[in-house]
Specification:
- By secondary structure, this protein is α+β, with helices and mostly antiparallel strands.
- Helices cover 25% and strands 17% of the residues.
- The protein is built from ten helices and 14 strands.
- It has a five-stranded antiparallel beta sheet. The chain has a four-stranded antiparallel beta sheet with strand order 11-12-13-14, with helices on one face. Strands 8-9-10 form a three-stranded mixed beta sheet, sandwiched between helices.
- Helix 3 packs across helix 4.
- The longest helix is centred in the C-terminal third of the chain and has 20 residues.
- The N and C termini lie far apart (103 Å).
Length: 417
């Protein structure tokens, strides 16, 4: 077991605690680097099979097992092949988390997988996709309202688990008979939900990362639309639904933070009264602690954005019978408030404002001035004789041409005026 020493010298990272990163629901064994032998005090090990299926087996033979070892374990009937994902004192904690108790009749670990075991296991796994397609065709021919989402063969190829999705109860007794005759294996049916199916299939979410249900989630909590309302998210089914056609699990991640932040926000039902007008709640930014009020219900005209603390202060003043001159000290309500343009977001030139000389308005203004100057020059009369009161406009020198030298003046001649 090797150790990775950190460069800053603050500690070390045990390489034995890391599992295979291509396995779902990987657990870091933070007790794997103990040298006193306490990390081998339990005989139970955690074995993971296809996708998220895990089991806890008793190492009655005292095999030296580590994370990542492929083992053959007891099954009913025959044997199954899986990968060890956890050993040591963390296994009883994981068993307690899964509401499992150590039992003397628990299934055992037979041995480390041999070459013959691995060959049978690979051959069984190669048949899973074709079996799933064929099983879907059989279920469709029997007019069963169910969808077979995945098939998992046992390590010895003598048993197959069919995972299916159905809205209600399905009588699949005839289906089991047909599947047993076609594939010549023992059939087991397991019903899963839409979230479990998405976790087994996998995919990329709208955040650009792999689905949470396919990487680290171990349990699925029901998601309600109340979580979206707490976060002021528009109730758009196309944006709130995930790849499983259910509400996204990530809606629950920040719900508790919004609940705590909402306690510091003013009530949305109480209007704010000033000396000039009455303002009604329009919208709020809960995490930023900002609230927007408008003198007209549901309209952005004359809207004012203030802090939640200021809104609570105005409510307290109103409760005492006092009306402040304005909601915010920096804004004169009704006089200096700039009316909001509801069509401004649809303007094609909204990005050209405030860009100085390179803006579109500046270019148009410069082009217009040049055109007006050319018209004035064209309308001016012809050249007049020069006198003492008029001055001739100097001509621009062309940098590309050589500068002409003035002719030498002859003696006795006067220079031209």
């Amino acid at each position: 077991m090797g150790d990775w020493i950190l460069h800053n010298g603050s500690g070390r990272l045990c390489a034995g605690g890391c599992g295979r990163q291509d396995r779902q629901l990987n657990t870091y064994d933070w007790m794997a680097d103990l040298k006193d032998g306490t990390h081998r005090e339990t005989e139970y090990v955690e074995v993971q099979f296809k996708n998220t299926r895990k089991g806890y087996y008793r190492n009655s033979g005292g095999l030296d097992l580590h994370k990542g070892d492929t083992v053959a374990v007891e099954a009913q009937p025959g044997h199954d092949v899986g990968v060890v994902t956890l050993t040591g004192p963390l296994v009883p904690l994981q068993m307690a988390k899964a509401n499992l108790k150590p039992d003397a009749t628990a299934r055992r670990v037979y041995r480390k997988a041999k070459v013959g075991d691995l060959e049978k296991w690979k051959m069984a796994k190669a048949r899973e996709h074709d079996t799933m397609i064929r099983a879907r065709q059989i279920a469709l021919s029997l007019n069963l309202e169910m969808k077979i989402g995945d098939v998992e063969y046992q390590g010895d190829g003598g048993k197959a688990i069919f995972y299916y999705i159905a809205e209600g109860r399905v009588d699949f007794r005839q289906l089991i008979k047909v599947l047993a005759e076609v594939f010549r294996v023992r059939i087991e049916m397991k019903q899963i939900g839409a979230r479990q199916e998405a976790g087994r299939i996998g995919g990329i979410g709208p955040c650009g990362r792999e689905l949470c249900c396919a990487t680290w989630m171990t349990s699925f909590v029901s998601v309600a639309t109340a979580a979206a309302r707490l976060q002021d998210i528009a109730l758009n089914p196309q944006k709130l639904a995930g790849q499983c056609a259910k509400l996204k699990c990530c809606l629950n991640y920040e719900a508790d933070i919004y609940v705590e932040a909402s306690k510091r926000m003013p009530s949305r039902e109480i209007p704010l009264e000033t000396a000039d007008a009455t303002f009604y709640f329009l919208k709020a930014d809960i995490l930023a602690g900002r609230v927007t009020y408008s003198p007209q219900k549901g309209s952005l005209e004359g809207a004012v954005n203030i802090s939640a603390r200021r809104a609570l202060e105005v409510m307290e003043l109103n409760r005492r019978g006092t009306k402040p001159d304005c909601l915010d000290d920096d804004t004169q309500i009704g006089r200096n408030a700039r009316p909001a343009d509801l069509l401004e977001q649809d303007s094609l030139t909204r990005f050209d404002r405030g860009k100085g000389k390179n803006s579109g308005n500046a270019r148009k203004k410069k082009k217009k001035n040049n055109a007006a100057r050319m018209q004035q020059e064209a309308a001016a009369p012809g050249p007049q004789p020069a006198d003492a009161t008029t001055t001739e406009r100097p001509k621009r020198n062309n940098k590309s041409k050589k500068k002409k030298t003035p002719k030498e003046e002859q003696p006795g001649e006067e220079p031209a005026a």
